[in-house]
Structure formats: C-alpha cells, structure tokens
Design goal:
The complex is a heterodimer of chains A (about 260) and B (about 325).
Chain A lengths: L1 H16 L5 H19 L4 H34 L2 H6 L5 H33 L3 H29 L4 H27 L3 H13 L9 H4 L7 H27 L5
Chain B lengths: L1 H32 L16 H6 L5 H26 L16 H11 L4 H10 L5 H14 L4 H13 L3 H12 L6 H13 L3 H14 L3 H34 L6 H10 L9 E2 L5 E2 L7 E3 L4 E3 L11
Antiparallel strand pairs in B: 1-2, 3-4
Helix pairs in contact in B: 3-4, 4-5, 4-6, 5-6, 5-7, 6-7, 7-8, 8-9, 10-11, 11-12
Classes of the chains: A mainly alpha (about 260), B mainly alpha (about 325).
C-alpha cells in the first residue's frame, strides 16, 4: 500500500511540475469574467449561468486533463525507459498502475476543489448564496465521472499508443453520455439479436449520464442519497473493473 | 550568430504582426463580400432544434439553455435598439414590424433544454404577445406542463388571455393558479374580477401592480412599471381633456398653452391622491417626465411619441 501511495504522490508532483494545474488560472479568469459580465447578458439570472458555465467548464477541463494526462502516464515511463528502473525495485506492475491512477485522481481532485471554490465564491459575489453550497453535490458527481474517464484512459494506454488511446477515451466520454439512448434504441428494436447487442454495449460502456447533475444544480437541487450513493458505487465498481483489466493487460506487456 | 538569431526573431515578429493585420483586414473583406440575404431572412437560421440538441448535449443542456436565453435577450434587444434609431414611433405593444421570427424558436429551445427555466416562460409572456399571441400562449402552456406547481406561470398565461380580451379563459387560468399552494389571494381575486370587470382600468392596474411588486424577474418588473406609467398617463389625459373641454366651454376657444388650463387642472382630483406635474418651463409633464403635447387644432392633449418612455398603443 505504501508503494502505491509513493507512486501516487510522485504522479501528483509530476503533474504539478508539468503545469497541469495551470488550467486553473484560465478557469479563474473565466469565472471572474462571468461574474462581472453575466448580470447584463442574462437579465439578472447570472447565478444559474455561473453554475452552468462553471460546472460545464470544470467537466470539460477535467475531461481533457483526464484524457491527455491519463494516456501519457504509462507511455511516458516506457518511452523514457524509466519503467525499467521502477520495476527493478520491489514494485509490482499492478501497484505501479494503481499508483499512477490514484496520483492523477488526486490531481483532478485538487482541480475540482479549487474550481468548485471559484464557482462558490463567484456565486456569493453575485448573490447566489443558496446555490453556493448546493453545487458541491454536482461537483462530487463530476469528480467521479472524471475518475471513470481516467481509468478508461489508463486501460487504453496499457495496450495502445497515446494518440489512439486519447481518441478512444474521448469516444467513450461521448458514447457514455448516449448510453441511455442506446438502451432505448435496443428496446424499440424488433430483432432479439440486436436487442442483446445494444444491451451488451449499454452495460459494457460506462453510463456517464448518471453523473450529469449540472442543470439540476443550477436550480438548487440536491441529488437524493440513493442516487448519490448509487452513482458513487457504480463509479467504484466500474473503475475496479477497468483497472483490473488494465493490470491484466499491462502485466503481460513486453516493454522491449 | 547573435545577429542571425535576432534577425530571425525580428522576421518572425514581422510575420506575426503583418499576418494578423492581414487576417483582420481580410475578415472584414470576406464579411462584406458575402452576398446579402433577402430582407426577410436577415437573421441566421437555427440549424439545430432544442429537442434534437438535447440528445447531443453531453450533460451541458443547462449551459446550452443559458446560451439560447442570452441569444433571445440580445436578439430582441438589438432589434429594438436598431428600430429606435430609425423609427420615432417604436411600439412596445406591437413588435411584429421588427421581424423577430427567431424569438419564439430561441425561447422554445431554451425551455426544451431546461424545462424548469421559468424565466424563459416569463420573458415570453411579456414580449411574445407583442409579436405573436398564439406563440405566447403555446410557450406558457408548455411552461405550465413542465412546472405545474408554479402559480406565476398561470398568472402570466391569465395575463396573456386578458390582453387578448378573452376574460373567460383568463378567469379560468387565474382560478387554476389560485389552487396551487403558495399562490397569493390576488389570483383568486383576479379569477372573479375577470368575469365581471375584465376590461376595467382598475383591473389592469391590479395586474401590473402585482407583477411589479411580486415578480422575481427584472424584465417582467420593467414591463409592468411601464404599463403602470401608461395607466397613470391615461388617467391624467382623461382629466386634461376634461379641463380643456371646460376651458373651451367657458371661453369659446381652445387654450393657447398649459398655463391657461393649469388653474382648472388643480381643481381636479386624480386617483390615489396623485397630482399633475409641471416642469420649469411651465409644461405639463407625463409620468415619465416628458411634456405632454397640446394639440390646439383638435383642442386635445397627447403623449409625445418621440420622447416619452410610456408604451404607445
């Protein structure tokens, strides 16, 4: 366990050194400008727009960080040959992969926490104090969506090139938001074979719409405990499956 | 070596500066060179419909709804400003001349993407009746279907029916809204008043005062305030006309200026203990602060169409 945390800590440090957290500056500028200018543009409904804009930007920035940093986590170590130095020590391939994953999750957590604080402060500034606290449930769900995407990125990068992994992970993000439509489509199909096929895809790909709560958060809604717990357990189960598959593939990979 | 490097830097900077200048100039050139659209289609078309867009929104439907909301505000705002620059007789009560054909689709898209975005329906209730009342009713009915516990939407639909002089439906709508928990006693009062005195000025005042005092929406408040000014000026104009008539009966001629009728006007009591206002030049001014016009030929008074802020019918 200690070894995993050491790798996670180093991955986080590396992300900070690589200026991954610089996107926070852009985010802060975006939110500040929104807080100042949206009052006129939205005819007094700036609080809900700050929630929509802030949380959507948080998701977009997070998705790009998860994809581009996630796919390069393993490949960079292989390219630089540092992977040999790591595995010369008593560290298993599984521990290495899980450590890398947790390190990036920590980076994303810092990202969403700072961004969330920015959104809350902007809401307080424009007089949306009632939304400043309720957005945090939606932020928690965004973090778990990003955690799933990071695991997807690591799975693809365990056997594919960084460019292809990034593309595939991005596709999973898009299809993940359509999975409910896939299921509805399967229900309306006459053919039993097609039904089985689309249902299989539905269960195989992550249903990221479980984590979409931005529009509700803009109305001050809070997810009920069942929904929140269900979504978090779904994410944990899905991440476990993805990491297990990634470890399975990575442990058989030849670095030469 | 250093000389070569600085030469390269200078060349690169020159390319950046001149390149951007070229891009800037060409943007304007291409924009102007584009063949113009027919007058009726000068707005861009909505390539995407809200219902379809919702499926592709990747969880960002709230943000897209906000975008359509802001577009709707800018769209109608820009048209009104443009029209006011060229047309002195801007009419808040009938904006169909502005060709605002995209307003309904914009509001419809915003409310499809976020059906609980109540401000969209409220804005539609205020602006759409001046463009297409059928669309205004349709939008409000959609709002009620999606937010059946929002009594304000019933109030706004009742208001549209009232403006359509359909007092029967207005009464029915106010009545339905009155049954929702949290609805103010005003709703029940309106439900009964619509049938007996739907066309009265006092009914109109009660509606706009309620909107002005209770609406959380800035647009609705501003619109209600203008309509209240309009009602005040109607009361003032009634009194002024009566004073002008009395003056003519006494002197056998029309008043040559406001100073001649002011003593008569001071004897008239305006509702709610209001009194006439006169500016430094001795002109009688309307509730928005603009002098009334005295039409000596017709011996009549009216609002100054060019400068008054009061909506003209």
């Amino acid at each position: 366990m200690y070894r995993i945390f050491s790798i996670a800590r180093n991955t986080f440090r590396e992300a900070v050194r690589d200026r991954v957290l610089y996107n926070l500056v852009l985010f802060v500028l975006l939110i500040t400008a929104s807080a100042i200018f949206l009052g006129e543009l939205t005819a007094g409904h700036e609080a809900r727009t700050i929630v929509n804009l802030g949380l959507s930007a948080m998701l977009v920035f997070g998705v790009f960080t998860a994809i581009f940093v996630g796919v390069s986590l393993v490949s960079k170590e292989i390219e630089k040959r540092t992977v040999f130095a790591i595995f010369a020590k008593p560290i298993g391939r599984g521990e290495f992969l899980v450590g890398k994953y947790l390190g990036l999750c920590l980076t994303l957590l810092v990202n969403v926490l700072v961004m969330g604080a920015g959104v809350s402060l902007a809401l307080l500034w424009v007089g949306g104090a009632n939304l400043a606290a309720s957005v945090w449930a939606a932020i928690l769900l965004i973090f778990f969506e990003l955690a799933i995407l990071t695991a997807v990125a690591i799975l693809f990068s365990s056997f594919s090139s960084p460019a292809l992994s990034a593309l595939l992970t991005f596709f999973v993000f898009i299809i993940g938001h359509f999975s409910q439509s896939l299921r509805d489509f399967a229900e309306n199909l006459g053919s039993a074979g097609a039904k089985v096929f689309f249902n299989a895809i539905y269960y195989l790909l992550p249903n990221l719409s479980f984590f979409s709560f931005i529009t509700n958060a803009a109305h001050g809604d809070l997810p009920n405990a069942r929904m929140l717990a269900g979504a978090i357990f779904y994410a944990v189960c899905y991440i476990a499956v993805l990491l297990a598959a990634a470890i399975l593939i990575f442990s058989r990979r030849n670095f030469k | 070596m250093k000389f070569v490097q600085s030469k390269q830097t200078l060349a690169a900077l020159a390319v950046i500066v001149f390149g951007f200048a070229g891009v800037f100039a060409l943007s304007g050139f291409v924009e102007k060179a584009r063949p113009p659209l027919p007058a009726g289609f000068e707005d861009e078309d909505l390539a995407l419909q809200g219902a379809r867009l919702k499926g592709f929104s990747l969880g960002f439907e709230g943000l897209l709804a906000d975008w359509y909301w802001m577009r709707a505000l800018q769209y109608i705002g820009a048209k009104v400003i443009r029209d006011r620059e060229t047309n002195d007789n801007f009419n808040l009560e009938n904006m169909s001349g502005l060709n605002p054909r995209l307003l309904y689709p914009l509001l419809d898209n915003a409310s499809t993407l976020d059906p609980r975005f109540v401000a969209v329906y409220s804005y539609g209730a205020v602006i759409l009746p001046a463009i297409d009342r059928r669309q205004a009713v349709k939008l409000l009915e959609k709002g009620i279907a999606n937010n059946s516990n929002e009594w304000r939407l019933y109030e706004q639909l009742g208001y549209i029916y009232w403006r359509l002089d359909d007092y029967e439906r207005a009464a029915e709508t106010y009545g339905k809204g009155a049954k929702i928990s949290g609805a103010p006693p005003f709703m029940l009062m309106m439900a009964s008043k619509m049938k007996s005195a739907g066309g009265d000025r006092e009914t109109a005042r009660a509606i706009y005062e309620q909107m002005f005092n209770e609406s959380p929406d800035r647009q609705v408040k501003e619109n209600a305030a203008l309509h209240l000014l309009e009602l005040d000026s109607s009361e003032e104009l009634d009194a002024i006309r009566s004073a002008l008539q009395s003056f003519r009966e006494k002197t056998n001629r029309c008043a040559s200026g406001w100073r001649e009728v002011l003593p008569l006007l001071q004897t008239i009591k305006l509702p709610r203990n209001k009194s006439f206002r006169v500016d430094k030049a001795g002109n009688l001014i309307d509730p928005s602060g603009t002098p009334y016009i005295l039409d000596k030929e017709k011996c009549d008074a009216r609002l100054d169409e060019k400068t008054t802020k009061i909506p003209l019918k």
